[in-house]
Write a structure and sequence with these properties.
By secondary structure, the protein is α/β, with parallel strands linked by helices. It folds into five domains: about 40 residues; about 55 residues; about 170 residues, 2-Layer Sandwich (Nucleotidyltransferase, domain 5), CATH 3.30.420; about 60 residues, no CATH class; about 80 residues, no CATH class. Strands 1, 2, 3, 5, 8 and 9 form a six-stranded mixed sheet that branches. A four-stranded antiparallel sheet has the order 11-14-15-16, with no helix packed on it. A three-stranded mixed sheet has the order 12-13-17, with no helix packed on it.
Amino acid sequence: MTGVETIARIRFEHFQNGKGIKRIARELGVARDTVRKVLRSGATEFSYRRTVQPQPKLGAWVETLTAILEAEAKLPRRERRTTQRLFEELRGRGYDGAHDSVHRFVRAWRAERARAPVQAFVPLSFDPGEAYQFDWSHEAIELAGLPHTVKVAHMRLAFSRMPIVRAYHRESQEMVFDAHDRAFAFFGGACRGIYDNMKTAVEAIFVGKARLYNRRFLQLCSHHLVEPVACTPAAGWEKGQVENQVGTVRDVLFRPRPRVKTLDELNAWLEDQCRAYAQRTRHPQMKDQTIWEVFQDERPALTPYVGAFAGFTEKPMRATTTCLVTHDRNKYSVDARAAGRAVLVRAYAERIVVLLHDEVVADHPRSFRREQVIYDPWHYLPVLLRKPGALRNGAPFKDWDLPPALAKVRAKLKAHLDGDRQFVKILAAAPDHGVAAIEAACAEALEAGIASGDVVVAILARRAQPPPAPSIITPDALRLRAEPVADCARYDTLRRTRIHAA
């Protein structure tokens, strides 16, 4: 192949110095056909690309190698064999060609499979307070010393590029509600929302942009005055900013894996990191300002934040006769009044609330493990009054975290034959007096060295009595300025005086 320097020299000698083809070929040591080709074509560069690569020995093995590659194409990338391993595979079957032939064929085959058609896109532009974009991602963290995968909700203001992310154990609808409330509180307002067609928001897709949105999701949008817009299916570029944010956040915040004890600790750290990232990063269009500065200018254009939405999902259910309801493969106790009756279970992002005729009969912190039973022993108090023997072996009462004095009274009463009945008598006073009053009464009984249900109930009754009214009301004019003090030692003084006199 003739280099550009040689081509330039040929053209210069011919057109500037007037030398002929033979003389140029002789002086430069190139073929006359080459000189003639340069002068006649007028090109300043020639390139050669082989269109057909001969593979005399690989030809018979192309079908076998292609079958192997098609089978491995279904595997994850890290499980596919290298060209060296494939070459060794063919050598074991009888191939006697070179490794280069296998390498070139495999590289061309994989490149052809990986080549995707190039698409053109229209750049998008947004005004202040016009829209935000929302999406989910899955990230790896270390939670309480163990590897764990969390679902991260991403929201991004399209004009200022201000990001906010929050991690959850699930990607369910109540988490979507909580993520929106937290993000709008952080932004100080809301605007039009751009989403993909996630099932927690969209129930049906029609022609064009028409969608049938979930009823509860529409309530969320109505509460915050948000107009939802769903992207075209498989058209992630319509919310490309938040799609890019997923990769950026993963590189900046989740590599290496964050090590936290609780999800609340992680979310507080993520919010601080989003704020710090915005304060140090220049806006891609307004390069003289940071993202945080542009965000402060955008805030007045947002619809003001109106407060948190009641972000729960609910479903009707019948409580079991053992006072339990099931949600997300976990069981939660309810008040004994709801046993065997139809209740409404409301799932929030962080708690489970159970209602019976609009009355709350259970309120538990939500568990995100599986096959767990979460008890509140006080829910079983009405049953315990009828069956005191259940106190000893009842599942809700094992490892019951009682106040210290109440726990000591229970331990002392275990030695009595009717100890369970006496302790249940003490617990029965909780609805009328409260746990704090029972704890104080137990502490007073323990100070007196007595651990008895009747004594504790008597102390509670005495403390609940109002103070006696004075029998005689003394006018203020007759009140003594110095009240007399009873002092029996004065009689000893008189006795000593008489003895000395005698």
